[in-house]
Design a protein that fits this description.
Distance between the termini: 27 Å
Strand content: 25-35%
CATH class: Alpha Beta
Largest sheet: 5 strands, antiparallel
Structural class: alpha+beta
Number of helices: 4
Helix content: 25-40%
Shape: globular
CATH topology: Creatine Amidinohydrolase
Order of helices and strands: HHEEEEEHHEEEEEEEEEE
Number of domains: 1
Radius of gyration: 17 Å
Number of strands: 15
CATH superfamily: Creatinase/methionine aminopeptidase superfamily
CATH architecture: Alpha-Beta Complex
């Protein structure tokens, strides 16, 4: 499990600030009727304008710069000519590589009028991420993060996806440790100062089971229920932690 020095963490923080700017820009936009490919291209331009590169582009063969997933799609949606519609939940997952160091974050956006259940799904997932971040402290275990997320989600009648996890991040997009959103066997490794963790609850209104779409990338809920995804990149220090992408705060 990589332990990063001050310079590395500063570079990840720059990458995280780029992601924060991207999501802040999208917050002010009307996404309805926009093609997901247009959104992909806009985000890629912002990244490159900051002398950084999209971390997802060509990662293990992924063909676009951003993962954009709609409604029952959990993650790894491939941007295309589909238009975003009123009532959609759109999940945007962005990775930025700045000087060889990576930040990774995701945010779910509600388009127009959505159902009360969808609104509650968003709030519960955000709350679960905050709870997980709170437990990301030196001396705690990875399972403390997992338990905090699982408890919030299941208490509210939803389910975490079990086949996908959070992860360490730094020089590579996916590093150790694996961070499940549920308590697995054992307590998991001890959290240490210098770790950088991508914590990302993926939460379904329905069951936890998922399947892979025919494109070989997009993960969708098996029962076609709505799914929600929030993710932040967190640096661990001797005292406390720092949210470097600030998708959720407080």
């Amino acid at each position: 499990m990589p332990i990063l020095n001050e310079e590395a963490i500063k570079n990840i923080a720059v990458a995280g600030n780029i992601i924060y700017e991207i999501f802040s820009t999208i917050d002010k936009m009307d996404l309805e009727k926009m093609e997901t490919l247009e959104l992909n291209d806009m985000i890629a331009k912002i990244i490159r304008d900051h002398n950084a590169t999209p971390a997802f582009l060509n990662y293990r063969g992924f063909p676009k710069s951003v993962c954009i997933s709609l409604n029952n799609e959990v993650v790894h949606g491939i941007p295309d000519h589909r238009k975003i519609k009123n009532g959609d939940l759109i999940k945007i997952d962005v990775g930025v590589n700045y000087k060889g160091y990576i930040a990774d974050a995701a945010k779910t956006f509600a388009i127009g009028k959505i159902s009360k259940d969808a609104m509650r799904l968003i709030e519960v997932t955000k709350t679960a991420l905050r709870a997980g971040i709170k437990m990301a402290q030196k001396g705690n275990r990875i399972s403390d993060i997992s338990r905090a997320i699982q408890d919030i989600v299941e208490k509210n009648g939803f389910n975490v996806v079990r086949e996908l996890t959070g992860h360490g991040v730094g020089r590579s997009l996916h590093e150790e440790p694996v961070i499940p959103n549920f308590v697995n066997k054992g307590r998991g490794p001890t959290i240490k100062s210098g770790m950088v963790l991508a914590i990302e609850p993926m939460v379904n209104i329905g069951g936890s089971d998922v399947v892979t779409a025919k494109n070989g990338w997009t993960i969708i809920t098996k029962d076609n229920s709505l799914s929600c995804h929030f993710e932040d990149t967190i640096a661990i220090f001797e005292k406390g932690n720092l949210n470097m992408t600030r998708v959720v705060e407080g």
